[in-house]
Design brief:
Blueprint: H1 6-22, H2 24-38, H3 41-56, H4 90-101, H5 104-112, H6 115-119, H7 132-159, H8 169-172, H9 189-230, H10 234-252, H11 263-272, H12 283-290, E1 297-298, H13 300-305, H14 308-314, H15 324-342, E2 350-351, H16 352-358, H17 362-365, H18 381-439, H19 473-476, H20 480-488, H21 493-499
Helix pairs in contact: 2-3, 4-7, 9-15
GO molecular function, one term: DNA binding
Membrane topology: Peripheral membrane protein
Family: Belongs to the nucleobindin family.
């Protein structure tokens, strides 16, 4: 099948026109030969016209899709991403360094300053000479970092249940020594000095902390194994112990491990990883091949990558007897060993010069054997005993906390019951009030007493309590016969009133009230 794509046709057209130009001399030669053969004026004229047409031909312009053309200009290689240092302020540290290196003056000072001078803060003073653009960006980075720390403090407080407690961010920021918390807005010389000192100290302690964590991991693993054995009977315990010894022996049965950083170890990487002839091993070429970011130094991560082949001899993630946590500890041990032997200025980097000097030492050419983790137990018997005592104490503390929490739970449940009872009583009172409203019960009318008048009670009989009937007529009022003598002899009325238990009006009137004598015949 013929390819008739536009690119193909253009290529053919360009090739044909080019061929016409290239073969013009050949056509002229053929014409001359033919002229010699024909030797006629007519033929000569015809061939001259044909020759002029051939020489005046121009190639047809070829339309090219520029969008499909490959860019022939060399592209600048992107700088590899910085490796995570493992510090909690790693991002802030790397961003500050990246922006400082964009300033030419600071970059030159950084590359020419000794590590001891950097630790002493001499490099930080060069911040005053950094461009205004870089300083502005550093100010922004610091404000973002302070905001991030405040967010972390608030989140921690929320988790601990202190939502209603006012947070003193200024006091809490003191724990972050890598920045000046008193000035949260601008990046100053003190900030750079604090960042350098903190990063240096933290990185030096980082490996120690990793070793301690691994030691605790190993002791806890052994503690759990011993506790598991206690739950088994004699026969099962014996089988478990035999299986454990078999796994240890199987793990220790591996090829010889080369001394890290030795000639044999690097040659093995040169041959197996790089695919080169070990007889052609060249330290300088090896360094450039494995300086992955091309900065002229081996950092810790680049060094650790060199030990992968050795670690694969000991550890396989598919094997039951191989622990990948132990593999990472072994990698750390190898890197620390090489750094101690090669890093002469202790800047945690291996320069090309330091590497070349190390390849000429006796330790590089004739190294000692390397002892792996199974040959060096991570903890002592005394450390194991102290660790178990700590676990026992920790378990007791947890049990006591569980008891306290149980008591608090019971107390809360009791309080909840009381609240529920109060809620029921309140609900009953509300329902009672609602019933009274629906019955529309009116309160008794108010009685106003004027002077000494005796209030008149209506419906007294109906208001008597149950069982109290109306009294007889003789008890209701004195007979008319008894009232007539009182009316006829007013002077004896008081005596009769006293005898009947009635108040004597003359002597018991309130002060200022005189007895009024009225004519009985008056209307």
């Amino acid at each position: 099948m013929v390819d008739a794509s536009p690119s193909r046709v253009g290529h053919i057209r360009g090739f044909s026109a080019h061929s016409l130009f290239v073969s013009a001399d050949s056509v002229f030669s053929v014409a001359v030969m033919f002229f010699q053969m024909c030797r006629s004026r007519t033929a000569l004229t015809s061939w001259l016209i044909l020759l002029v047409q051939l020489l005046c031909l121009e190639a047809v312009p070829i339309s090219m899709d520029k969008t499909k053309l490959e860019d022939t200009e060399p592209k600048a290689e992107e700088a590899p991403a910085s490796v995570d240092t493992g510090l909690h302020y790693d991002r802030y540290l790397r961003e500050v360094i990246d922006f400082l290196e964009k300033d030419q003056h600071f970059r030159e000072k950084l590359h020419n300053t000794d590590m001891e001078d950097i630790k002493q803060g001499k490099l930080a003073k060069e911040l005053d000479f950094v461009s205004h653009h870089v300083r502005t960006k550093l100010d922004e980075l610091k404000r973002q970092e302070v905001s991030r720390l405040r967010t972390l403090i608030k989140a921690k407080q929320d988790l601990e249940g202190g939502n209603d407690i006012a947070v003193d961010h200024q006091a809490l920021l003191k724990q972050f020594e890598y920045l000046n918390h008193m000035n949260p807005h601008t990046f100053e010389v003190e900030d750079l000095d604090r960042l350098i000192r903190s990063a240096t100290n933290d990185l030096e302690n980082f490996d120690k902390e990793r070793h301690e964590e691994f030691k605790k991991y190993e002791m806890l693993k052994e503690h759990d194994r011993q506790e598991h054995l206690k739950t088994l009977d004699e026969e099962e315990r014996k089988k478990e112990e035999e299986h454990y010894d078999e796994m240890k022996k199987k793990h220790a049965d591996h090829p010889k491990v080369n001394h890290p950083g030795s000639q044999n170890q690097l040659k093995e990487v040169w041959e197996e990883a790089d695919g080169l002839d070990p007889e052609d091993f060249d330290p300088k070429t090896f360094f450039k091949l494995h300086d992955s970011n091309g900065d002229g130094y081996f950092d810790e991560q680049e060094l650790e990558a060199l030990f992968t082949k050795e670690l694969e001899k000991i550890y396989d993630p598919t094997n039951e007897e191989d622990d990948m946590v132990e593999m990472e500890e072994e990698r750390l041990r190898m890197r620390e060993h090489v750094m101690n032997e090669v890093d002469s200025n202790k800047d945690r980097l291996v320069s090309l010069d330091e590497f070349l000097v190390a390849t000429k030492k006796k330790e590089f050419l004739e190294p000692d054997s390397w002892e792996t983790l199974e040959q060096n137990q991570a903890y002592t018997d005394e450390e194991m005993r102290e660790f178990e005592e700590h676990l026992v104490q920790q378990e007791e503390d947890l049990n006591q906390k569980a008891v306290d929490l149980q008591k608090q739970r019971q107390e809360l449940e009791k309080q909840q019951e009381q609240l529920n009872a109060q809620k029921v009583e309140l609900q009953q009172a509300v329902e009672h009030m609602e019933r009274l409203k629906t019955l529309k019960v009116e309160p008794p009318p108010e009685v106003h007493i004027e002077g000494n008048a005796i209030p008149e009670v209506h419906g007294y009989e109906n208001a008597l309590p149950p069982g109290h009937g109306a009294t007889s007529k003789e008890h209701q009022s004195p007979p008319q016969e008894q009232l007539e003598p009182l009316q006829a002899h007013p002077e004896g009325a008081d005596q009769n009133q006293g005898q009947h238990g009635l108040p004597q009006t003359q002597h018991h009137l309130p002060p200022g009230h005189q007895e009024i004598h009225r004519d009985p015949n008056s209307p």
